What does this fold into?
Amino acid sequence: MGGYSFIEVKDMRNYSIDQLKEIDGIGLLTPQSKVKFQKWCRDLQIVKQNKYLHPLIIEYQNEVAYRKTRDEEHKFRDALEPYMLRNSKVENRRNKAILSMYISEKQANRSYRIINCLINAVGELGGTIYVSSGEQDNTRMRFLDHEFSISLTEIMVKLRSLLSNQQSDNMNISIRPMYEKVPSGLLTIEFKEILGYADRNKSAKSLCFVETLDRPLEKQMGEIINDLLKIALDIDVASHIADREYEIKQKEQERLYEIEEAKKQAIKKLEEYNIRKQHLTQNIENQMENWFKAQKLRDYAEELESFVSTASDETTKKLLNTYINFVRQKANKCDPVKNILNDVKDLESEFSG
It folds into this structure.
């Protein structure tokens, strides 16, 4: 894993699938790495004054300021003729995507410090936070090769609830409808896994941290980073398990396929054996006739040889011996034994093979 040097992850191949299903993501860290990482998380602090804000936050500030000015100057832009807007001091352009922070002006500086700390911490761990192009505000995080969306939001509450939770004598609130929703001053930050097309059937992992009056997000930053690493490692574990289970499934399917193919081959061989056997047995009568025919020809040849031995004329002997050779050749040709042996041998070898 890239990023901070103390992040060392154990090799998941050394664990069984059942062990991986029981393991906690942080449990994949080597013991020494885990101790250093958790100490690093505890030491994370959000400074009260930060002179060096990340460029994404600067872009957010500039875009929010532009939108406010534009919307004030072009409040009735939809009703005005285009030529009436040419002399406007502020360009009436579309929004540029910025960090997805939905906060009141009162919580802006605090939100900047929180996001700034998050960007720096994720960067130290080898991740990155960025904004995708377009008009829709968004915050994206790439962490351990996983994509997440991030949203920092100020909780809105009904005015009646807000009044009941605060001292009325310390408040200077104008008369408003009691059901109106107003910013509570409390923030929540949510992280949600962005799934690719290949993972469309998965359930996206998510994390949500809500602050309370006695536990603001500033005090939860270490826990946030710890849980981010945990959820990223949990996704790695789940992906590794899925890959291993798929591999096992594939091997089992291959094994079953090979068994099925072996059965088909055995059936095919048996069918071929039966065909050859049937052909051999159907030919027995012909082979028997050829056998007796060959024996008769050989007997005939022997009788001719006996006759030749009694002949006195050399020319007659020579001619008859030539004829006798023809007879024996025909006998050998009719003899089915050689063919029978070859057919039976092929039959047995094919079936045994």
